[in-house]
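Protocol step 4 of 5: obtain the predicted structure for the target chain.
Materials: sequence only (see below). No template structures provided, no constraints applied. The aim of this step is simply to have a reference model before the mutagenesis design in step 5. Sequence pasted as it appears in the construct record:
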Amino acid sequence: MLEAGTHTEQADVGARRAGAEVVVDNVSKSYDSRIVAVREVSLRLERGEFVSLTGPSGCGKSTLLNLIGSLARPDSGTISVDGIAVQDLRKPADYRRTTVGFVFQLHHLLPMLSAGGNVEVPLIGAGLRRRERGERARELLAEVGLAERVDHLPSQLSGGERQRVAV
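Step 4 output (structure tokens):
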């Protein structure tokens, strides 16, 4: 059984609470019309909450996250993230670029690009020029303690460093 646990985040004084409001209402998803991955799930997450989804393998955790992140479409029900009807998105890539983010168990870095190049790839869709992308990639890698690894290929990074590049 899929379970959700919540922990309200304490926001810094005067700071806007991070995150988004997520409303999942009676959502179901099946594959090959026989395998029910999610059945009539409803939940509401307030802005600033941290949530952990727990349950045994195959209970629908990843499917639910894929639905919220618009990587899959529900068969029924609705999903709203900060008032955006996820199942009705015309350009889900824009939504994923600006509203949600994924850190996959496997980092999914492009092996032929450096750490900096991998960070730059999503910035192409943001319309940044090459120089701006490079500068932003260096800034972001510095934020996760990888400033000196910007030119290293994924094969030259540790597993933890690869995860930080993916973040």
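Step 4 remarks: The helical segments are 61-68, 92-98, 115-124, 130-143, 159-166. The radius of gyration is 18 Å.
Proceed to step 5.
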